[in-house]
Specification:
Blueprint (H helix, E strand, L loop, with lengths): L3 H10 L3 E6 L10 H8 L8 H15 L3 E8 L5 H16 L3 E6 L13 E5 L3 E7 L5 E6 L5 H14 L1 E2 H6 L6 H4 L5
Parallel strand pairs: 1-2, 2-3
Antiparallel strand pairs: 1-4, 3-7, 4-5, 5-6
């Protein structure tokens, strides 16, 4: 497994593009606990300093000509966590320049061969395979062998081919907006 320092180094040294594939219906991130509580309590969005620092770092990278993009493969109806991630995550990160795309398998099929696996692909040169437990807690990352790079590039390209921009997918799903479902949960 990569150490946290080794994983962070991949973000520091890529030159052109960082691509993220996400496949889970929930990620359990300790630093999100308070933000999740506020979201489900109906409180307004407040971006914490650590999150803002990450967003500003990413925006500066994008401003320097680097590409940050991701595809999240999901299936409607989405989990409460994904509602949060979309409304308080993707809607915000796209404002900072990240390209977020959605592949909703209830609307279009996942291309054959794309695995149920989260990963980062940096500059077509390095793949960090991400490991999570059943609750979506991050367990660690490992570098994929260089011989597998063509497969990961193909997974990325296939997903990008059929996924749609987050903004258009989100606009077609007003039922996922917190204001449209939070009151009905009580």
């Amino acid at each position: 497994m990569l150490s946290e320092t080794e994983l962070e180094a991949l973000f520091d040294k890529f030159q052109h593009a960082a691509f993220r594939m996400e496949t889970l219906p929930r990620y359990t991130v300790g630093s999100e606990a308070e933000r999740l509580r506020r979201y489900f309590a109906g409180e307004p969005l407040e971006i914490e300093s650590g999150t803002r620092e990450w967003l500003e770092f990413m925006a500066a990278e994008i401003g320097s000509g680097k590409r940050w993009h991701k595809v999240h493969i999901l299936r409607s109806p989405i989990s409460d966590y994904l509602r949060f991630e979309c409304e308080w995550g993707y809607a915000v990160s796209t404002e900072y320049g990240q390209e977020v795309l959605i592949l909703d398998e209830s609307e279009r099929p996942r291309p054959a061969g794309i695995p149920d696996e989260d990963f980062w692909l940096f500059d077509d040169d390095a793949v960090a395979r991400l490991h999570y437990d059943a609750e979506g807690r991050f367990l660690g990352a490992e570098l994929a062998e260089s011989a597998t790079l063509p497969a990961y590039r193909r997974y990325r390209d296939l997903a990008l081919e059929v996924a749609e921009p987050f903004a258009s997918w989100w606009a077609r799903h007003p039922e996922y907006l917190r204001e449209n479902w939070l009151d009905s949960r009580s």
